[in-house]
Task: structure prediction
Amino acid sequence: MLEAVKSVLPAVMMGSPTWTSEWWPGTGRTSLALTNDQLCALVEKVAADRDRRAFAQLFTYFAPRLKGFGIRRGTDPATSEELAQETMLTLWRKADTFDRRKATVTTWVFTIVRNKRIDLFRREGFPEVDLSAVAEQAAEGASADDLVFAGQAGNAIRVAMRSLPKEQLDVLEKAFFEDKSHRAIAEETGLPLGTVKSRIRLALMRLRDVLPGAAQ
Amino acid sequence: MITHHPEAEILVDYAAGTLTEGMALAVATHAWHCAECRETIADLEAIGGVLLETCPPVELTDGAFDAILARLDEPGPPRTPAPSPSVDDTIVVPAPLARYIGGRIADLAWRRVGRLYDEVRLPLSTATVKASLMRFRPQTLVPHHTHRGREYTVVLAGGFSDAGKSFGPGDFNALDSSHHHQPRIDDDGDCLCLVVLDAPLKLTGVVGRLINPFLRI
Result:
C-alpha cells in the first residue's frame, strides 16, 4: 500500500519533514487524534489543491470510524467498509462544498454517510435543509469570530453529551446507531412511546442549555 | 410567524436518517421556513458527528486505500445543483421541495378530487409513502376523517384551521389514527399544502362515506 500511495505523490512531498508514517492508511494508527481546525485545513487542502496527502490523512482518520459506525449500526463488515469507501470518495469529490462556518468536519462527514446509506440501502433521495441561514444567525450571535463557531458548538455538544443521564443518551444512541425511528425504539425496548419522546426532548433541552448561540 | 413545529423526536429521526423520503421532505420543507428547527437539526447532526467520532474504529481490509486512490480520478456522478427556492407567481416554493416539482405550480397536472381539492402527486423513489401538493379553494370544509397511518402537512400558502388551531405558511401538522379532524380552509384565498401520507386516508361519518369512493387516496 505504501508504494501505491507514494507513486501518486509528487517527489517533493516525499522529502517533506512532516511526511511520517503516522498517517499512512492501514498502519493501525486509527486512534490518531485531530482537532476540528486540523480536519478543516485538510478538507480545504483537498478542495483547493486536490491534495492527495491531505486526503490520505482524512482517510486514516475517518475510514475506520465510518466502518465502525456501520458495524455499530448492525451492517456487516464488508458492506460497512464499502459504505466507508463510498463516503470517503464523496468527501474527495465534494470537498469544495464544505464550509467550516456551517459545521464541523465530523458533522459534515456524518451527513455524507447518512445520505450515502439512504442512497445505497433504500435507493431513496434525502431532502436536505440548507443550514447556511443557521450559520448566519450563529455568526450574528457570536460576534468574536464566526469562523470558530461551528467548532465550538461541536466541542460543546461533545461535553454536553457526557453530562446527559444514561437513559437520555441511550435513546439518542439508538436513534443514530441502530437506524431506528423513535417509534421502532419504543417497540423494541418495550418503553411507552411517551417515555421515548420525553427522553429525547429532555436530552435536547439539556443540550440546548449549554450550546453557544442556542435559541433563547 | 410559524407556530406549529414537528415534534423533537421527528427531528431526531430526520437527522438520523430514519424518516422515509416523503416524511423527510415534509420536515425539510418546514425547516426551510423555520430557523428554530434548522438550528435544532444542525445540533442533532452535530450529535451524529460526535457519535461517529467516538465510535470504536475498525481497520479496513488491506488494499482499501489503494482501491480508493485508483478511483480518485474517475469522474463523479453529475452534480445536481443545490436546489434553490423558486418564486412562482406569488408562491415561493421552498428549496427542498423545488426539486420534486417540475414546473410552475399553476401548470402542473392538477387532478380534481371529490369536489374537495386539486392534487398533484410528487415523484418519490418508493411507492409506500405518498407525497402530494393539495390545493383547496377558500372556505372548503374537509369532511371529518381520520387516518390509518400518519399524515404530515406543511402549509405552503394560505391557511386553514383545525381543532381550534390556525395553520399558515410554514406550519407543520402531524396527525395519526388517534386524530379525527375536520379542517376548514381560510376564506382569504386558496390554500396550498404539501401532504405526506404513509397509509390511505379513512373517512369517517356519513359525509365521509359518501365521498370516500371519489377520494382515490
The helical segments of chain B are 8-16, 21-33, 35-53, 64-69, 95-98, 205-211. Chain B has one domain: 1-76+86-217. DSSP finds six helices and 13 strands in chain B.
